């Protein structure tokens, strides 16, 4: 293979400049270990953007729902004007969407998908937009039929969080991702429990149980990813 | 040890094969991205890739993105099978029943 940037830098090996680095086998146990560590390292590197996206959504939900809670939640001491809270929430969600798209695209650089996985990705991606718009239109339909604003403030956040949870579970099924499955189930629970806290405290619950859980998940996955990356590198070198 | 495929049974080539095996069949990865993921030098990576290519374990596709040449790599069907066989032989040698 003539790579365009082929240079004989293989002599970086300290053992023997004539043998390419890494040509020596190890004992079977160490080779099996190397194999498993390497595969885990690839998976976490390919998925490293997920941690950042999760953290972004965690902050957006935590701060966004706290803003909504502050409309009436901290009375009589403090009341945030509704337009500020609503705009703040909207802007935070928009920023999170943009960051997710940018990181998702950047992470897929250098990987050419098979037609089958392109199809899966496109269908899954559009399921997000279709279902979120559908929930919004459905809510508008309920409003037209006399749903009072107090009920709407319960319906909309819970509906969107519920759908997010379901879509997480679906992604867990498609890509065999246990963390996505677990957080999906958690979000479904959070979405249906929230209404029982009643307005405005359901916003506080969504902020802490939804946003807080995302932030905890992001920190956990970052710690795990760092550990795997380190052990893959040192594993490859120590055995050399 | 006679059972272990000598093409894969070298640290660097095992790492390359294991990394490529995480892709779905039909998926391929560019040379620079693979190099980044494996943290290997370009020279070392291409030395080992040519051995894997010579054994028909790796398919090398050269295309262009605009004017820049890009090399994409993926396991061939026999490469994937060889990797699975290799993993099984390792486990058998270690007394793990597969």
Features:
heterodimer; A: 240 residues; mainly alpha; 74% helix; elongated; disordered N terminus; B: 98 residues; alpha+beta; Arc Repressor Mutant, subunit A; three-stranded antiparallel beta sheet; 4 helices; 50% helix
Q: How many distinct helices of chain A?
A: 7
Number of helices of chain B: 4
State the share of residues found in helices of chain A, binned by percent.
over 70%
CATH fold-level name of chain B: Arc Repressor Mutant, subunit A
Major sheet summary line of chain B: 3 strands, antiparallel
Order of strands, main sheet of chain B, comes to 1-3-2
Class based on secondary structure composition and strand pairing of chain A? mainly alpha
Shape of chain A: elongated
Number of domains of chain B: 1
Uncertain ranges of chain B: none
Average pLDDT, all residues of chain B: 92
Fraction of residues in H or I helices of chain B: 40-55%
What gyration radius of chain A follows from the Cα positions, in whole Å? Answer: 24 Å
Beta-strand residue percentage of chain B? 15-25%
What string, H for helix and E for strand, traces the elements of chain A in order? HHHEHHHH
* CATH C-level category of chain B: Mainly Alpha
- Globally, the shape of chain B reads elongated
Low-confidence regions of chain A: 1-17
Q: Indicate the mean pLDDT of chain A.
A: 87
Oligomer: heterodimer
Report a brief summary of the structure.
Chain A is mostly helical and 240 residues long. In chain A, 74% of the residues lie in helices and 1% in strands.
Task: Characterise this structure.
The complex is a heterodimer of chains A (240) and B (98). Chain A is mainly alpha-helical and 240 residues long. The relative contact order of chain A is 0.14. Chain B is an alpha+beta fold. Chain B has one domain: Winged helix-like DNA-binding domain superfamily/Winged helix DNA-binding domain (Arc Repressor Mutant, subunit A), CATH 1.10.10. Helix content of chain B is 50%, strand content 19%. Chain B has a 3-stranded antiparallel beta sheet. Chain B is elongated, with a radius of gyration of 14 Å. Strand 1 of chain A pairs antiparallel with strand 1 of chain B.
């Amino acid at each position: 293979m003539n790579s365009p940037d082929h240079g004989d830098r293989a002599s970086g090996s300290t053992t023997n400049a004539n043998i390419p680095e890494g040509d020596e086998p190890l004992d079977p146990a160490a080779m099996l270990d190397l194999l498993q560590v390497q595969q885990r390292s690839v998976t976490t590197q390919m998925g490293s953007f997920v941690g950042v996206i999760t953290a972004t959504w965690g902050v957006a939900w935590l701060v966004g729902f706290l803003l909504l809670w502050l409309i009436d939640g901290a009375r009589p001491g403090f009341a945030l004007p509704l337009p500020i809270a609503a705009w703040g929430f909207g802007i935070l969600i928009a920023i999170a969407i943009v960051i997710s798209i940018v990181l998702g695209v950047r992470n897929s650089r250098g990987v050419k998908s098979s037609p089958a996985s392109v199809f899966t990705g496109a269908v899954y991606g559009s399921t997000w937009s279709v279902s979120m718009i559908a929930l919004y239109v459905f809510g508008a339909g309920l409003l037209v039929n006399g749903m009072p604003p107090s009920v709407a403030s319960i319906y909309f956040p819970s509906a969107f969080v519920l759908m997010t949870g379901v879509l997480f579970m679906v992604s867990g099924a498609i890509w065999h991702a246990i963390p996505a499955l677990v957080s999906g189930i958690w979000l479904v629970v959070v979405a249906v429990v929230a209404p029982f806290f009643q307005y405005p405290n359901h916003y506080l619950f969504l902020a802490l149980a939804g946003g807080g859980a995302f932030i905890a998940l992001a920190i956990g996955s970052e710690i795990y990813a760092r550990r795997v990356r380190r052990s893959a590198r040192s594993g490859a070198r120590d055995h050399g | 040890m006679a059972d272990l495929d000598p093409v894969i049974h070298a640290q660097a080539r095992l790492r390359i094969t294991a990394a490529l095996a995480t892709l779905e069949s039909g998926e391929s990865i560019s040379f620079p991205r693979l190099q980044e993921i494996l943290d290997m030098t370009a020279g070392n990576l291409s030395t080992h890739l040519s051995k894997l290519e010579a054994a028909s374990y790796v398919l090398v596709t050269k295309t262009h993105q605009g004017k820049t040449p890009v090399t994409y790599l993926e396991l061939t069907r026999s490469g994937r099978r060889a990797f699975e066989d290799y993993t099984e032989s390792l486990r058998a040698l270690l007394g793990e029943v597969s």
